[in-house]
Design goal:
The structure holds two protein chains of two kinds.
Chain A: E1 8-9, E2 16-17, H1 34-40
Chain B: H1 13-18, H2 33-36, E1 43-44, H3 50-59, E2 65-68, E3 74-78, H4 80-83, H5 91-94, E4 96-97, H6 108-117, E5 122-126, E6 132-137, H7 138-155
Parallel strand pairs in B: 1-2
Antiparallel strand pairs in B: 2-3, 3-4, 5-6
Helix pairs in contact in B: 6-7
Classes of the chains: A little secondary structure, B alpha+beta.
Chain lengths: ~55, ~160
């Protein structure tokens, strides 16, 4: 039997994630997802606008 | 415009920054994670035993060790808690696998702020292909960010 992964919401975009990408803790109160962390730290470019403008 | 040697870095600006390439412009002189990270952090291999590593790490005055392969690609991390494990266990079983890693160009103030917010004692700094640059200790990050803040306050 597999155990369900704990879920926490990204503090920046509300996406449900297994654990915080910054500190790897499942119960982090300031959890952040991979995408938001990359953009916040300048490690990744922000996504393009949906409207294309 | 007078440029005689021009290159197109196909992988892009972010990859250049992440590899620790030289930069110019506003903020180029500000300290970044790669400069503050300790390159002399102890390292070990997957097939070692925790007992050997514990002695080496303590002798070097550290409470953390980065697990790397032969190319110095980060595979795992032994923080203080993992280093207290059974000396007979293999590093592969004792380590925290696949830790979050950060690129050398991340501003130190940003890392310091987040390390305090997340209560993170240290963070591995790697190039974008995973090679170890060093281990960033929270105390070093906070001190450098504080010094930067003071210097910028003095100059304004």
């Amino acid at each position: 039997m597999t155990q369900a992964a704990p879920v926490v919401d990204c503090a920046a975009c509300d996406k449900a994630i297994d654990c915080c990408e910054f500190c790897d803790r499942p119960g982090c109160p300031a959890a952040i997802c991979y995408r938001c962390l990359g953009v916040a730290l300048g490690q990744a470019a922000p996504g393009l606008h949906d409207h294309g403008g | 415009m007078g440029f005689t040697q021009v290159y197109d870095y196909v992988a892009g600006k972010l990859d250049w920054l992440a590899a620790g390439g030289p930069i110019e412009g506003t903020g180029a002189g500000r300290p970044r994670a790669g400069e503050v990270a300790r390159g002399d952090v102890p390292t070990c291999a997957l097939d070692e035993h925790l007992g050997e590593v514990q002695g080496r790490v303590r002798a070097a005055g550290w409470d953390a060790c980065v697990v790397v392969n032969q190319e110095r690609v980060v595979l795992g991390l032994l923080r203080a808690k993992e280093l207290e494990g059974d000396p007979a266990s293999r590093i592969e079983a004792a380590m925290r696998p696949g830790p979050s890693t950060f690129r050398p160009h991340v501003p130190i103030a940003e890392m310091a702020h987040r390390m305090v917010e997340h209560d993170l004692e240290n963070a591995p700094i790697t190039t974008s292909d995973g090679r170890l640059v060093g281990l960033l200790r929270r105390a070093d990050a906070v001190r450098t960010a504080h010094e930067l803040h003071q210097a910028e306050g003095d100059s304004s």
